[in-house]
Specification:
129 residues, 5 strands
Length: 129
């Protein structure tokens, strides 16, 4: 999602796409605007994104790659189950389920993720610091 936001923001900064366009155009129409953009840098990087077949991850940002810092969200459910006419959590009655849950909590996620091409979004020169 961050890549799409960076492309759309870059198009807005360069005047190829307006905020009103985002409210009034369909997704298909916005994509057509990106693919028909006269800015080769924006258009070609979007095409690279469309054709990407893999995503890399790393603990450090990699040079010459589109790279963003990602905080992964851990979402999980520990299902309820019926056991001896009582309701209990699956991890309370299954060692295998408890092991799987513990392994999930111990997965180390990389800090950075990205694509195997270099895209640096345009920055707004009118930004007030």
């Amino acid at each position: 999602m961050q890549f799409l936001a960076d492309i759309v923001n870059s198009m807005n900064i360069k005047g190829y796409l307006t905020i009103d366009d985002l409210y009034n155009l369909s997704e298909k129409e916005v994509i057509e605007k990106i693919l028909n953009c006269e800015d080769d840098y924006i258009r070609e990087n979007f095409i690279k994104f469309q054709n990407a077949t893999s995503v890399y991850s790393s603990d450090v940002p990699l040079e010459d790659k589109y790279c963003i810092s990602v905080k992964s969200k851990r979402r999980y459910i520990i299902p309820l189950t019926k056991c001896d006419n009582e309701v209990c959590r699956i991890n309370e009655i299954s060692k295998s389920a408890q092991k799987d849950i513990n392994e999930y909590f111990n997965i180390k996620h990389s800090k950075y993720t990205g694509f195997d091409f270099d895209f640096k979004p345009y920055e707004n020169s009118n930004t007030i610091n």
